[in-house]
């Protein structure tokens, strides 16, 4: 019985819809991750832009001071220029005027210049520094002011300008002492980077959102139709296999020439259908052969009884009863063979846990085998115990079938040999009869096959003995084959060897 997976109400039934939904979900996760990465990268880039603007402003302020020019207050970034020994700032702007630094500078003044002056810079850089500084709170400030009500700690870039390196005119224009040292402060505001990032990311996020939604729809649609096209051969296979019936499994699916997974599926289904066809043909042949074999003794039995009933006074009743008994025994043997074959076909091949001495079993069967119809010599040759796993009854039936077959064909002698060969136990049954043609070496193991149809069926067996023997051999992980011989027929049975039981 096929097990049916419980269906989830929220999950679509169609494979196309499932694949499209799964692909769209995976794409949404990828696009969301990409958008987050772009947003974060834009913010970091905006911070670098804000720092670059502050650096450019610091450089410009230093250049103006070295030229003796007092910078104007208009600036895109907050700045303050302070000097040694001076309470008020030399210059300020960009929002620092909120603190009223005209009376007192906000950021600390630099120490006096070290004399003599340090050696000139080697040209690898202009030597500015950055460190966090506390911006004091400003009483009366409003929440919307540049630094807020409570001030805060901000990254500040600064650089120093020595007055003794400037001309007297420039020093006088700046209003500082000739031994003073100027320090230029530029405050890097975080919200400046946020303002830059906000303007960029807002537009970027809108475009990414629209592109992502359109992309998800296109990905889902393309996936849906691509899977639909890819599953067309599967649908064709389904339609064709639905028309296959147990009584006529002759339909075959078309194998695509593309070589992909559908090709492997079609090939596997054709192989399965071929096995079903072969099994159905064997079953039909088996039923026909069984009916034919059953009809022959039934016809003989019925004819004998009808003649006896029609002419009771002229009937040889002992002969009639003998004939009826012989045909009944034949029917019984045929029925038992058919039941055994049915059990062998339905049970899994596996050796039993018991250990059987095949040499002792063969020796006992040869001693007890009845040879009453004609003079035959039946011998068994074994040099040592030969243990195998399995059921003793099954092995006895297997050996008896081989000996029965040899007894029907032997002229004078039957030889049974049991040997241990490495990990195998090999048993042979050799008769000196007419033998089997090479082309029929496998056909003799088919069910209801007789190669001597000319002889009486009363002495020819049911045609199932060798088929049962091979099935029993396979069930115990062994093989049964016909070995080519110049005289007679030799059947060889190979079985995995077992360890001798303890105490034997």
UniProtKB/TrEMBL annotation:
One of the Pfam families matching this protein, by short name: HisKA
* Assigned keywords, A-Z: Kinase, Membrane, Phosphoprotein, Transferase, Transmembrane, Transmembrane helix, Two-component regulatory system
**Record lineage:** Bacteria, Bacillati, Actinomycetota, Actinomycetes, Kitasatosporales
Task: Please give the GO cellular component terms listed in this UniProt entry.
Answer: plasma membrane
Q: Which residues form the Histidine kinase domain?
A: 289-499
GO MF annotation terms: phosphorelay sensor kinase activity
Residues in domain HAMP?
Answer: 228-281
Residue ranges of the TM segments: 20-38, 208-227
Return the CDD domains for the record.
Answer: HATPase, HisKA
Q: Which InterPro entries match?
A: HAMP_dom, HATPase_C_sf, HATPase_dom, His_kinase_dom, HisK_dim/P_dom, HisK_dim/P_sf, Sig_transdc_His_kin-like_C, TCS_sensor_his_kinase
Task: Supply the source organism for this entry.
Answer: Streptomyces nitrosporeus
Into which EC class is this enzyme placed? Answer: transferase
The entry's localization annotation reads: Cell membrane
The record's EC number reads: 2.7.13.3
- Which PROSITE patterns does the annotation name? HAMP (PS50885), HIS_KIN (PS50109)
Q: What is this protein called?
A: histidine kinase
- Catalytic reactions on record: ATP + protein L-histidine = ADP + protein N-phospho-L-histidine
